[in-house]
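Same chain as my last thread, 351 residues:
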Amino acid sequence: MNNVSQFVRKEDIQAQASLWISKLERGLSDEEMQELTRWIHRHEENHRQLLQMAAFWDNLSVLNELSALFPLDSMSVQEPRHKKRFAIAASISAMLVTSALMLTQQSWLPATMGMAGYQAQSFTTNVGQYDTLTLSDGSTVVLNTASKLIIDFTPEHRKLILESGEANFDVAKDPSRPFTVHVGDNTFTALGTVFNVQKNSEQAMELVVTEGRVLVAQGDETLEDLAKAISTNVGTTGNATIVASGQKAQIAPNVRAPIVQLPTQAIEKDLAWQQGMIIFEGESLTKALDEVSRYTATEFEIVDSSIADIKIAGFFKAGDIDGLMDSLHSNFNIQATYASPNTVLLSATQP
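reply #2:
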């Protein structure tokens, strides 16, 4: 007989407990009830985590059902009864206190748990990769290359954190729950709109609104303040600024550039990445290559300073390095030489 006990991580027990909560809400079959009973009696921690998970999601009906079906005091334990009861109460309180930490750090929570309004997940894209997400509230998000987004939805708020990269948000209308995207030190809040946010650094970012309105504010604004401000019709309220459809706002360290009204062509340029394209309209070669570099692991080095300020215009497929190099050669006599598989040296073609 094997006397070595198997170690089960607490995170694994929590993941299993969350799945059982979802099944309990829809109702268990006789076979599932037997399976749950075996799992409950396998280890006291299984029962404890199941009760904690029900308490965490404030699911009173499931909590009562669990307590009636599987009283914790009936489990075989070494602790005195009064200590066990105290431990359960303390652990449930601890779950409530640390719930925010769990929502943002635990990736095992399913996107939907049978508890309306909750969603806790993180999504990332690699260099050159795109991803379209459908959130639990019906909103959709398109993630651009090299981006990371964290979702933290509760019945009271819809909070997202864009840690890096760029994303386009098509927000489902829900006046009772503000939809707020945290980017560095700023927040972007909407109650039903379509907008695009690009994060260049913790303090530098760009916002383009294509439908509705977005409130731009500092990160310390409360949800109540944001909800109140977004309902106003003024362009600026307190430390917050409202950006309307067809407008663009640029935020740099300690500077908030004036809001500009964009023509349709300019909006299409900013959002061309959603079709896998990059559009240039007279940017310098240096700036154009910086944009191209977002979509590829290839690095570019301009070894001939005379070509650095050449103006680039045209449509380019993101990640198509060979196509770009051919265009530069045919239109500007720029020679591309691979110094390594991921390093391209650019210089003027010699006569």
